[in-house]
Amino acid sequence: MTPAVPDPAITLTPPLCSIFRRFLKRQGLKFTPERAEILEAVLRKPGIFEAEELLAEMRQAGLRASKATVYRTLKHLLDAGIISEVLIDSERARYQLTFGQTPKGRLVCVETDQIIEFENPALTALRDRICKQYGFEPLSFQFTIYGTSPQGRAAVEKASKD
Amino acid sequence: MTPAVPDPAITLTPPLCSIFRRFLKRQGLKFTPERAEILEAVLRKPGIFEAEELLAEMRQAGLRASKATVYRTLKHLLDAGIISEVLIDSERARYQLTFGQTPKGRLVCVETDQIIEFENPALTALRDRICKQYGFEPLSFQFTIYGTSPQGRAAVEKASKD
DNA sequence: CTTGCTGCAAAAGTTTTGCACACGT
DNA sequence: ACGTGTGCAAAACTTTTGCAGCAAG
After folding, report:
1. What whole-number distance in Å separates Cα of residue B138 and Cα of residue B134?
2. Tens-place pLDDT, residues B1-34
3. Each residue of B108-118: pLDDT tens digit?
4. Which domains can be identified in chain A, with CATH numbers?
5. I need a surface site. Which of A66, A74, A112, B19 has the fewest CB within 10 A?
């Protein structure tokens, strides 16, 4: 049977919408329909996304927020700590919903462009150890390994048989 | 007295100029005066640098390589494994001489923009452990912690006394 | 002579900005 | 009315590309 006790992880973390509202109020900014739409669009994205991609999907969904508003709102969401930049290469900006998530490391296959995300306690432990050593107060981190996946190596091998 | 035996680390690692020459030849490309100039300019940079910055310094030194050639050559140096991209944010591309260097992690102070680089054996150990777990063959990695340094926190505190 | 290289200027792509008008309090 | 937000188009920036002439094997 379903327990009547709500999941504490849900009750203790107010929905992101409230988080964003509160952040905006604190900054003297307004929670407008456009900003709500953009946050919803972000919440619908499962993983890593780009600004233009988000905009395109919103357009397809019939949402009317302009490009400028999307870019401006992504900055606010970043400031609010709801999303984070994902630095894979310097081609363009990428983002990801990270509020309340366990920080993740990434493996990027340079052959297939596949991105694997992983959680590993040793990662945050190492971060904390290094921060302590330098008197740093950590806010976020990026750990990305570039290399070849088994599939990537297989693809290369196959291609070299030409 | 000075031993007659040369340092193996030096004899075994040919100068970067030869490395680059060899790389170019292997690719059917030429080692031109422009490419040599650009490599020299890179070798003169102690740390992290940007393409336009490199170009500006070359111009000041009276070197005539064009913007297009600088950008094109940076790509070759990247392919040759002589320099690496440094991903700090998505504002622009940054590079760093990394050939033969121990891989480094970075601490970025979000208040002062100071960048501290550190070496830590646990970092590569963790990388190897994770790669093994996923069957990845590692080529490079980025480990960057964002937070506040003691100086950054002091600066914030001082600024809030207004 | 064929292949690659350079410089220039133009193009492309992403992100930001100026401005006029609109909205909520 | 005031301060903030929005859309649009233009601007700003970084990076790439097309092309004509040049250099080297």
Report:
1. 11
2. 444 555 554 455 678 999 999 999 999 999 999 9
3. 999 999 999 99
4. 1-100 (1.10.10.10), 102-162 (3.30.1490.190)
5. A66
- C-alpha distances out from residue B152 to A125, A130, A131, B101, Å: 23, 17, 14, 29
Contact check, Cβ <8 Å, A147/B136 = yes
Rounded CA–C1' distance between A147 and C12, in angstroms: 29
B3 Cα to chain A: minimum distance (Å): 38
CB-strand contact B64/D, under 7 Å: no
pTM: 0.89
At A71, is the secondary structure helix, strand, or coil? helix
Residue nearest to nucleotide D4 (CA to C1'): A29
The maximal CA–CA distance of chain B, rounded, in angstroms, is 65
Fill in the DSSP letter of residue A119. -
**Testing the interface with B: which of A91, A104, A106, A141 to mutate, by most B Cβ within 10 A?**
A141
Contact by Cβ (8 Å): A83, A42: yes
Question: What are the mean pLDDT values of chain B's consecutive 10-residue runs (162 residues total)?
Answer: 50 79 95 96 96 96 95 97 97 96 96 95 97 97 97 84 56
Cβ of A135 and B142 within 8 Å? no
